[in-house]
Amino acid sequence: MYRYRITQCLSVGRFATPERVADLRAAGITHILNVSDAVSQVASGEGSFREVVWLPMDDIHHIPDSVAIEALDALHRMAAEPGAHVYVHCLAGQLRSPTVLWLYLIACGFDPQSARDVIESRSPDAAPGTRKLVGPDLVLRVQLHGLANYFPHPRGEVIVPYAMNND
Q1: What is the rounded distance in angstroms from the CA atom of residue 155 to the CA atom of residue 85?
Q2: Which fold has domain 3-149?
Q3: Whole-number Å distance between alpha carbons of 98 and 4
Q4: Cβ proximity of 39 and 59 under 8 Å
Q5: Of the candidates 5, 10, 2, the residue with the CA atom closest to the CA atom of residue 103
Q6: How large a percentage of the chain has pLDDT more than 70?
Q7: For residues 115 and 106, is the Cβ–Cβ distance under 8 A?
Q8: Which of 76, 77, 87 is nearest to 17 (CA)?
């Protein structure tokens, strides 16, 4: 499996390739956020996805605060659209994309451990919030940014964990 549904409207996984488009569309994916260091291979447009955003990140250094906030704002904008289901991906779906999703859940009110538990229970290879990517002040910055910009969430179902028995 290369993709995992984390909440009602957010999924995470490996790189979105042209070969995976049909499966992503069948899973109800409407938007894609690429946080890998490789340019997107899928595009938005009629019969495809409403929006595809690429915010390059590497998996060797801490995510700069400004890049994290930009990714969270893009994710929030996409997730807030009616009927949206956002697929957040990197290359392997283990570090960057789960970490961005973890930060978003924290920005939406989850405590860090609960957000980690939700992601790891649904995506077994994920390592959200690894110290390799997250600096010491980023969680607080994300919490404050989310409080100032994401409340109340326009679509509460976006942050409801996906029932694991639905898989």
Answers
A1: 11
A2: Protein-Tyrosine Phosphatase; Chain A (3.90.190)
A3: 10
A4: no
A5: 10
A6: 98
A7: yes
A8: 87
Q: How confident is the model over 60-104, as pLDDT tens digits?
A: 999 999 999 999 999 999 999 999 999 999 999 999 999 999 999
Q: How far is CA 23 from CA 16, 43, 48, in A?
A: 10, 15, 11
d(CA 8, CA 83): 11
* Domain map (residue ranges) of the chain: 3-149
Instruction: Copy the structure tokens of residue 58.
Output: 């590497």
Q: Measured over all CA atoms, what is the biggest interatomic distance in the chain, rounded to whole angstroms?
A: 42
Q: What is the 3-state secondary structure (H, E, C) of 78-123?
A: HHCCCCCCEEEECCCCCCHHHHHHHHHHHHCCCCHHHHHHHHHHHC
Distance, in Å, from the CA atom of 40 to the CA atom of 33, rounded to the nearest integer, reads: 9
Collapse the DSSP code of 19 into the 3-class scheme (helix H, G, I; strand E, B; otherwise coil) and give the result: helix
Q: Residue 57 is encoded by which pair of tokens?
A: 């990140």
Distances (CA, A) of 84 to 21, 29, 106, 146, 155: 16, 7, 20, 19, 10
Name residue, tokens 């995470």.
12
Q: Is the pTM above the cut of 0.90? A: yes
Query: Cα separation of 60 and 70, whole Å?
Result: 19
